[in-house]
Every structure is written in C-alpha cells, then in structure tokens.
Fold this sequence. Notes:
By secondary structure, the protein is mostly helical. 56% of the residues lie in helices and 5% in strands.
Amino acid sequence: xxxxxxxHGHERVPSRQRRRFPGISSRTYEHPADRSALVAxxxxxxxxxxxxxxxxxxxxxxxRLLFLSDSVRVSDQQFAHLNVxxxxxxxxxxxxxxxxxxVNQDPQPNAMCIGLDEPIIVVTxxxxxxxxxxxxxxxxxxxxxxxxxxxxxxxTILLFLTSLAVRVAWIPLGNLAIMAIVTxxxxxxxxxxxxxxxxxxxxxxxxxxxxxxxMKIAGGNHLHEMNVDAFLAQAEEYEAGGDLRDSVxxxxxxxxxxxxxxxxxxxxxxxxxxSRDYQRxxxxxxARRDEDKDTSVRDxxxxxxxxxxxxxxxSKDPLMKLVTDLAGGAGDLGDRVRRGFNGFxxxxxxxxxxxxxxxSGPSDSSGDDQPPRDER
Length: 376
C-alpha cells in the first residue's frame, strides 16, 4: 500500500469476479431515512466546516495516535488478507483514497469508521477471529460504505458526546441537553447501519455470507447450530409478536443502542437484496457521484416520507397497526388501545356470590357453561 493509500493501477483484484461500480454515489445504497438527513445536511452551505469548528475539542489526533501506538495497522506486512479486502472494497465502490485500517485487541466483535478530517477503520480481534473471509469482506465493505457516505464525522461526534454525557451526568440540565443530541444521533446512526449493510453486500456480492456474518455476531461461531431461515423467522416474530406493551418495550430497548437489532438488520438486508432496486444496481444502473450536486432536498424528503408511510402501512407491529387503523378511521381510540394492551390492566375479581346470582340479581342459567369472551 502506498504512503497516500491510493490506488495505482488497481494491481490487486478481488479473489473472485465481482462487479465494480465506477463513480457510484452513496445515495445508491443509503437507506431513505439516512439519505434524507445527510442530503439535507450537505445542502447547508458550510455546515461541515462549522460542525468541525464547533467540535474543535474532539480528541481526533489523540485517537489516531492511540491506534497508531496501541493497535496493528493493516498493510502488506501486517494482516495482509485484510489489506487485500480493504483495497478490493475501495476498488469496487471506487473510493479513491484507501482509509487506514487498524486491528485492535478486543474480544468483543466490533468495527467502526471514525475521523473528522479523514476516516480510519478499526476492527477488533474478536471480529477477525469470528468471521471467515467472505463474511469479513462484507464487514470491510460495510465500513468502506460508511467512509464513502461521510458517516465517520457524525460517528466521531456520537462517540465524543456519549463519553461527555457520562462525565457531566452530575449536571442535570447539561446532561439532559447532551443526551437529547445523543438520542437524535443514535436514531440517525441506526439508519446509517442499514445503509452500510447494503454497501457491504455490494462489495461482497454474497448475500449468504452477509447473513452468516450477522448470525455469528448474534450467536457466535456456531454456524452448525444455526439456520438462516430460522434466524430470519425471529425477525418476523419480533416484528409482529405481542401487544402494545411489547411495542413500547421495543422502543425503550432500542433507544440506547447505536446499532439496530441483528435479526432486524438481516431481514432488512434480505428484503433489499430481493428488490428491483438492488438488481438495477447490479445491472449498472445507479446514482453517480458527479450528480450529487443536483440532488434535490425536497425529493429526498419525499422519498423518506414515502418509505416511512409504506413501512407503517405494511408493518405487523401492534403499535404501527394501531396507527394505521386509526389513520384510516377504524374504531374508537380508547377501545383499540385497551384491546392492544391485552390484559395489561386486570379487573379485580368479584367477591363470591350465591349460586344462581350475581351482583345485580339472578343469573341466566343458559350462560353458566359459556367460556369468557375473548375481546382480542
């Protein structure tokens, strides 16, 4: 790898034939919610400059020195197989400058792309040891996708603010303000992970490898004990199962996370891989970088709104179904919420009554053997 980490003739080629995407724009694979946010930010003149200026206290130089001094930099001499994957990923997505990559000693499987001025990629030993070559190739493509999309800037801000929130937790209002920003960044970043998963698939071009990698991240290196269809069925059950209580718990569970749940990521990626959009990209029809300047913020927001409308309409989640039904004028709000929280509040049992009577008088003996009516 050259000092500038740049391609020179692309001497290395993928280990098997893969389609390349010259001049591809990150808009091609970005999730609608992720894309609309980034396009809007990029259209604000000088936003990134101001953002970086306000973030002058960020310890980016410290981070770079830390990884340089206490991790292993990927090169032709060190972790050469990862270096080949990295160059391949940049070649396929036509990223001219290859970001530096480091391997950090950490048993927790993880990878990230951070940096304000220039992105750097960090993968942990836990991840390197967990995944095979094709699975790892998808992960490297995932991180290169983050770099191409410009996600590293906001990811670095998120890491810094998360750390800052812990330090100022004793200041009620200060912590509240920081956590509000962190919550917003996490919501965006979860969407950006879905985008990067798509980039990983464009690089690896092997859906099964992407699925295996996500399964391993969820369940460890026990593929012989796991099944892709059963794993995806978990996502279906998670999406559709339970009542409104479960919908609320899903929201609370995901709020502190920077990544979507693994089964959800697998289901989203499979859905995209089977879509017409993905096939068009593989056929060479995709957005080009030189067209980015002509991107309309209004069109991007419209695409995002259309996506969310479709998601809510087709969702099997109890809360989303309630929203859809109410929007369509179906039923009374109080009654539907009560039935959605099936059994959440229970009616105290009535005191024992004399045979043949209830609180209001004699009962109808014809209903003695009738089971209670299920109101669901």
